[in-house]
Amino acid sequence: MRYPHLLAAIALIAPAPLLAQSLTPAETQKIDALVTKTLADTGVPSASIAVVRGGKIVLTKAYGKQFEGQKGPADPNLPYQIASVSKQFTAAAILLLADEGKLSLDDTVSRYVPGITGGDRITIRQLLSHTSGLRDYWPQDYSVKAMATPTSPQGIVDRWAKAPLDFAPGTQWQYSNTGYVVAGMIVEKVSGQPLLQFLQTRVFKPLNIRAIDQDKAVGPGFPQGYLRHALGPVRVETPAAPGWLYAAGELAMSAGDLAKWDVARMNRTLLPAKDWATQEEPVKLTDGSNTNYGLGVGVGTANGRHFVEHSGEAVGFLTENIVYPDDKAAVVVAANAWFADAQDRIAKGISDIVLPAPVASAEDAAALDRTKRVYAQLVAGDLDRSLLTEDAAYYFTPATIADYKASLSPLGQPTKIEQRGSARLRGGFVNRNYRVTYPDHILRISTYAEPGAGGKIEQFLVSPAE
Question: Which of 126, 212, 119, 104 is nearest to 176 (CA)?
């Protein structure tokens, strides 16, 4: 049940204007082409997507083979196993109970679930933010031997939550599915209802979301999970025995239904606004460092764009869910395979299509022009040394320049040089990074320069990229 691995890759630059609510035919065609190519490149059998723009769901669509013997096109209404994306719903249940005064995020675990190691020191907030120190019961990205046998929340707690803590509560961040199992048990004890029943009443029915236990989302008519060993054939995966995901990842729903939750998040509906804010507030460790994780969601800013994100991994399934609250946009991608990175590629590609195009500042535009000019000089082996600081001049010896020319000139003319990410200050210099695209190569340029339009270049390094 992996967690955010897309944080550094998503988003582009510059604040966004209001978005048109609908997709243009050209944008839809780009999305179709992106998904189709990604599935072909990775071997992943199918993907189901949802796109939110302007605070409304503007596209739900499924592609490829969702199960063996499927006849007809892929159905976007079929529920995929969303695994750890479920964690934010477990956290929402806790927040709703806190609103009613039935518990507090700062209550210790031992008040509700006895026998847990450190339970008199671990708080509910630490369970939800992965800072409890409880040992994760499923860190592997494959189905382990124990998962062939049915289990229960108490069975997971007895084996893993009574082991020694991996660290003192609050001192480190370490993903722990075990912590969420304990949180689910607390919801059930306090509410007097099974977790899924509580969520159906308080969350899913009000939002018209069809959510089911992923253990029951198997068999005819449901998407099948697939596996692949190395670069071998794609095969049908055997589901885990019942009970293994529970509050850490028990839900199955369509991409469109998950997008309804994303819309509620960006519009601050269903839950009180303070609950959404609490869930999205990054938890800090005892030393004051930022975990970039709230209560069931990863949070942060990539290249100037705020995001709330979580991924999910079930046996045979991968999901990526990204919300851009300030842009009123979201992307959901569910794949019925737990190999390759199709869900990440598709999510990032769709984000690039539907989010506003970056608007370069005057300083960035001038820096890009200079970068193109210096790159062309290096390709030609004739660098204008008046552009360099003392250190850069020391670096660019005649032998260095000769290496640049010899290795770059055979590539010909690049098709594009573009800034990646936003400028940042470091060591008194302005750092900008660029992507150089050739038909058969991708290169990276890392630059540092003195501030100001005429600032001299401190660093200009070219390296391979992907």
Answer: 126
